[in-house]
Amino acid sequence: MIHYRDEGMFVSNDLHSITQETLDKLQDEFHHLTTVGRTDIARVIESARLLGDLSENGDYHAAKDAQGKMESRIRQIDQILRNHEIVERDEDSTEVRHASIVAVVYEGDDESDAQEFFIGSIEEKPDGLLVASPTSPLGAALLGHEVGDTVEYEAPSGVLRVTIVGLR
After folding, report:
1. Which class is 3-86 in CATH?
2. Residue 127 has what DSSP assignment?
3. Hey, where are the domains in the chain?
């Protein structure tokens, strides 16, 4: 993992593992933000400027804040687009892989307390699921294991054990 400074920001050249579907979605979002998004925010800023004194102009400050957030998102997407690898979903796999949805039960909990995690990038996360990056302690521990396996991983509170109770 190498980090370098680019235009005053630290940028990582970590390789992002994403599916083709996510790549397509990110390319569409990037195109929209760098064309329509930038044009729209420029219009909003210009309209707010016409309202008068910029030091007390809430509309202007809100528009500039929105512009900063949008530019940050553009840089984030650009970094992923420049440094990614395509991974395939394997719907029939019996092992935890990238883009798997895994149900786990923490040691001492009842199976009714199972939590589901999506193993992958936050960019790919299905609605309503927690995300465990493949490089996170939990995600890394789960990769390659099957339903019924118990794995351990190091958490800030100490070593935790989870049993895989479902995989889709």
Report:
1. mainly alpha
2. T
3. 3-86, 101-167
Rounded CA-CA distance 130/119 in Å is 9
Res 109: pLDDT: 96
Please tell me whether residue 133 adopts helix, strand or coil conformation: coil
CATH code that applies to domain 101-167 = 3.10.50.30
Cα radius of gyration (the chain): 21
pLDDT digits (tens, 9 = 90+) for 86-114: 988 777 789 999 889 999 999 999 999 99
Q: pTM of the prediction?
A: 0.73
Per-residue pLDDT, 2: 37
Burial class for 138, CB neighbours closer than 10 Å (0-12, 13-18, 19+): buried
* 88-101 exposure pattern, b = at least 16 Cβ within 10 A, e = fewer: eeeeeeeebbbbbe
